[in-house]
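STRUCTURE:
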């Protein structure tokens, strides 16, 4: 069944997002209408649902166009998503240098996700020269604004003492905050800290959370890491991570 919405039925961005959970096809019609009317939030959301194929046929090049339209109106997440498209080759040829330019615009305007994405490029030298000092500064800025993934990576810099003084206590705190913020890598990092403190039951609880939320690459690497853990209960989690990895591969 297709849905047709009258002009007066166009909803605001929050309502459209909620509708996507309940009726993706109807939401897609509303988003199309609102985007065509020039609603910038709807334009950014249209780019996302076209990228994901949510309630509408997947079309990455068209998603890229809508992200560009919304970004041109100053929408920071759409600008960030332009960077993601160029970084990963979604609807265009992959070009990390172009991605970095988009991330930098949004990061300079205050978007935490763009800070994180730009920091990742700087830390790995993709599209830009390696610059761990700048990457660390961006992770710290995003973390201080509540970005859970950046908290974990800030913790890693502090734990390892890379381009900054090592500070295990501060690293532990950022890992804890990342874990509580829902980042599966932060949950894994905090579990490792707890295991090192002998708090195995707490570590196992956080590993269960990381297992539930982890992606394919994380699960593969985590399984290998856990298989070498000194505590047999932690080591026993390796099989669960491997099983979950195999399940996601079949999806």
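SEQUENCE:
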């Amino acid at each position: 069944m297709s849905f047709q919405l009258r002009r007066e039925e166009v909803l605001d961005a929050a309502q459209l997002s909620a509708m996507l959970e309940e009726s993706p096809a109807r939401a897609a019609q509303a988003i199309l209408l609102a985007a065509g009317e020039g609603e910038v939030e709807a334009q950014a959301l249209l780019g996302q649902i076209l990228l994901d194929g949510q309630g509408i046929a997947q079309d990455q090049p068209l998603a890229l166009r809508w992200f560009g339209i919304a970004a041109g109106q100053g929408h920071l997440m759409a600008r960030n998503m332009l960077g993601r498209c160029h970084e990963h080759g979604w609807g265009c040829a992959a070009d990390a240098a172009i991605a970095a330019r988009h991330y930098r615009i949004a990061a300079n305007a205050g978007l935490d996700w763009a800070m994180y994405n730009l920091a990742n490029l700087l830390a790995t030298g993709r599209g830009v020269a390696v610059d761990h000092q700048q990457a660390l500064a961006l992770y710290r800025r995003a973390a201080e604004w509540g970005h859970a993934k950046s908290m974990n990576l800030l913790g890693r810099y502090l734990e390892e003492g890379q381009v900054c003084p090592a500070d295990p206590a501060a690293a532990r705190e950022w890992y804890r905050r990342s874990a509580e913020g829902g980042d599966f890598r932060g949950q894994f990092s905090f579990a490792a800290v707890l295991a090192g403190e002998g708090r195995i039951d707490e570590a196992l609880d956080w590993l269960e959370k990381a297992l539930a939320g982890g992606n394919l690459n994380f699960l593969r690497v985590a399984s290998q890491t856990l298989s070498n853990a000194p505590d047999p209960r932690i080591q026993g989690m390796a099989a669960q991570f491997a099983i979950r990895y195999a399940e996601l591969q079949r999806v």
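REMARK: Residues 83-145 form a domain with the Serine Threonine Protein Phosphatase 5, Tetratricopeptide repeat fold (CATH 1.25.40.10).
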